[in-house]
Design a protein that fits this description.
By secondary structure, the chain is of the alpha+beta class. The chain has 6 helices and 9 strands. It has a 9-stranded antiparallel β-sheet with strand order 1-3-4-9-8-7-6-5-2, with helices on both faces. Strand 8 and strand 9 form a beta hairpin. It is globular, with a radius of gyration of 27 Å.
Length: 270
Amino acid sequence: MLAAVLAAGTLLTTAACSDGDDSASSGSGVTASPVAERAVTTTPTTTATASPTEPLTQAGAQTALITEGDLEDDWTQVKTAASWRDRLLIDKVDAAQFVTAKTQSDACQQFLDGLYDDDLLGKPSGASALTGFQQGDSRLLYQVAAYQRAALDSKLDWLESLPTECDQFNAVGSDGSTRTVQVIVNSLPKVGDARYGLTMTMQGVSGGAPITLTLDVAVVRVGDDAITVTNGGLDGADHDSTKDAVSHGTTRLKDVREGRTPAPEPSEFD
C-alpha cells in the first residue's frame, strides 16, 4: 500500500512539471525560442531619449559644456571663443560650376556663411552656451542650445545633403583668388538621438601664400537640444578630439536633462 501511495505521488509531481512545460510551448509542442522571448520583453523599453519636462535653462546649457578634461592632447580653454571668426570663410561661391546652379550654390554659400557666423543650426529657440579651446593654430568651438524639433531635424537633413550638393566647388576670396572646397562625410560615435558629421577642406592662396584650411563639423541631437562642434584650422583637424567632444559632451547634456550633475572627468568606460 505504501508503494502504491508513493507511485501516485510521483505521477502527480510529473504531471505538474509537464503542465509547467506546456505553458512555454507552442500548440505543436515545440518550446518557444529564448531569442523571441527577449525580443518581446525588450522591445517596449527601447525608446528614444524623451524630451525633458522643463526646457533647457541657461544654467543647464552652461553646465552641459565640455571642459579641458573631456579632451585629450594639449587643448587650452579660452574666453574669447564667441568672437572667433575665420576670414577665409568670407568667400563667394562660384555658381557657374553647378548643374543646378541656384540650388547648389545657395546650399554651399549657406554652409560657408554658417561656419563663419557659428550658426549652422540657425538661431536657438531657447537657452544656449558656447566655449572654445585652442591648440597651436587649431581651434575647437563647442556649443549647446535648445531648438524647435522640426527646425532642428530640417537642419540635420540639410547637413546630410552637403557632401552630395557641395562635394567640391570653387569659392572666390575677397582678394579675388579662387579656392577649392571639398566636403566629405566624417563618422561620429553613435550617441544621442541623431547625429551627423562632415569635414570641409579649403585649398588655395591667401596673402600670396598657399593655404589649406580643414574643419570638422559635428552635430548631435538629444531630444530638442543639440551640441555643435567645429574643430580645425590651418594645421588640420584632429578627428579624435572631435569624437571626444561629441561623446563626452552628449553624456554631459543627457545628465543635465535628467537632473544630474555631470562628472568632473569623463569615465574611462564612456
